[in-house]
Amino acid sequence: MDGYYAFMLVATALVLMMTVPALALFYGGMTRSKSVLNMMMMSFVSFGIASIVFVLWGWSEGWGADGAGNLNGKLIANPFHMWGLHGVSSSNFIYVLFQLTFAAITVALISGAVADRVKLSAWVVFVPIWLTLCYFPIAHNVWGGGWLSTHWVAQDYAGGTVVHINAGIAGGILALVIGKRVGWPREVNRPHNLTLTMIGAGMLWFGWYGFNVGSIVFSEDSLSDPKKFSAQFMSDTGATFMNTTIATAAAMLAWLLVERITHGKATSLGAASGIVAGLVAITPACGSVSLTGAIIVGAIAGGLCALAVGLKYKLGLDDSLDVVGVHLVGGLVGTLLIGFLSTKSAPLGVDGLFYGGGLGSLGDQTMAALFTLVWTGVLTTIIALAIKYTLGWRVTAEAEVDGIDADQHGESAYDLAQAKGLLA
Amino acid sequence: MKLVTAVIKPHKWEDVRVALEAIGVTGMTVSEVSGYGRQKGHTEVYRGAEYDVALVPKIRLEIAIAEEDVESVITAIERAARTERIGDGKIWVSPLETVLRVRTGERDDAAI
After folding, report:
1. CATH number of the domain that A258 lies in?
2. Is A122 a member of any domain?
3. Radius of gyration of chain B (CA)
4. B46 and A269: CB-CB below 8 Å?
């Protein structure tokens, strides 16, 4: 138990690192040089707001159960019952903090869809409202013993629905409501610093071991017997660590292969994107599939996401950094493939269609995905429109062209004239 | 007195410098510039989206020389900078009215 506790301290810090700074770097490198600070700030600010909101009412709304023990079977739990972590002992804080880091990265992921054009003030208003109306309820329904989980027992080890489908659909809707950037897609919006993006992708991969492996849940048996506890701890973490690794490797290679075939070159942005697509897809599935299953999940996610990111040009949707193409598509791939590829030999112990388990698991997975799409789709539309017609989302067109960093933060990321030592 | 201006491919700059030194050219001004000629720009692909990048990086040399050195200088640059592929650049020569060395106040041919 002590070993598990020490592991959770590390896992939680790893997931924190995924937002600050890994996601900030991954996204920041993909924006233009005049908007990189704003992009990174959206991740940093998301973490700040999510932390406060989470301890005030997020934990209570997602994981509380109206004081009645575990399953409450409702759409949300009472946000005020454990306000400010009332009644939660500090020896349990690490479990709260682990979930806190998930809420933070989920809302930060959305920011990639609306890069270069959103007022910081609008984002600051959006983050707590979205967490309250979309994140905590979905987490409650999938993980916290809420309504969905009492009807369809979906397997979502670390957040295919709660994190990725959730952020993906929200990002798509924000991009639609907020609209495209000035000059998109006619003007060049190529990434300004792919080394930042590569570093960010590598750090995300590293942090993801906290995210996936740390999401272990112990059986009743294990909780009552230290020997069984230790055995489950080792076998489950081994399986999820392995699946996370090989699915990600397969996805990176698949993305590069698709690029090589369709555009003639394998790119560094493709490698970074493939890594994230694989991590996204294996997130829900890392405790459900075999080693072979993980390779299949990764390869399909990498290949499909590589094709999906081109769709926004056909749809005219300026999902700037492909939150839909990577997180929604990757999240759906991982969540739905569980219905086919899950096996009793994996930690969660359910057979899917290909292992003779029939359509039951696929049905549960589909319902969890649909529930997330509909719930977050509807509520995000309402939040986005409400902000659009009150506060307003966008900086002025002039500020957008001159650079949102200067307009929103009064800073510029790079002073290259000074670095060169000429005419400083 | 003439001013020789050459715009060349960046990776040929070192060859050109060595060739000019070999024929006794003692100084020049070099800048990193960007532009395009008949070769146009190039295409880059990011997550499946193709971008036409209009400007190509080039090196520009400016060398003030005496009139009788013009042919040997432009021939040296031409030979060293040529790859026979599109985008090798251009050389042009323009007249100079006067040249002054700041340190000594020398003028014209003495200042070159």
Report:
1. 1.10.3430.10
2. yes
3. 17
4. yes
- How far CA A244 is from CA of A79, A232, A269, A286, A287, in Å, comes to 33, 18, 20, 6, 9
Do the beta carbons of residue A211 and residue A14 sit within 8 Å? yes
Residue A261 lies in a domain: yes
Distance from CA of A190 to the nearest CA of B (A): 7
Sign of the torsion angle spanned by Cα atoms A374, A112, A102, A215: positive
Q: Are A216 and A233 in contact (CB under 8 A)?
A: yes
CB contact under 8 A, B47 and A270: yes
Pairwise CA distance, residues A298 & B18, whole Å: 53
B52 interaction partners in chain A (CB closer than 8 Å): 188
Q: Which domain holds residue B29?
A: 2-111
Domain span at residue A261 reads 2-215+230-408
Residue of B nearest to A191 (CA): B46
* Contact call for A313 and B49, based on CB within 8 A: yes
Which CATH number fits the domain that encloses residue B25?
3.30.70.120
Q: Indicate whether A222 belongs to any domain.
A: no
* Number of structural domains chain A divides into: 1
ipTM above 0.90 for this complex: no
Q: What pLDDT is stored for residue B54 in this prediction?
A: 83
- Across the interface, do B48 and A259 touch by the CB < 8 Å criterion? yes
User: Is A413 part of any domain?
Assistant: no
Rounded to a whole number of angstroms, the distance from the CA of A193 to the nearest CA of chain B is 12
For range A320-349, the mean pLDDT: 97
- Per-residue pLDDT band for A67 (boundaries 50, 70, 90) equals very low
Chain B residue with Cα closest to A313: B49
Contacts of B44 in chain A (CB under 8 A): 190
Tens digits of per-residue pLDDT, B77-97?
A: 999 999 998 889 999 999 999
Report how many domains make up chain B. Answer: 1
pLDDT category of residue A68 using cuts at 50, 70 and 90: very low
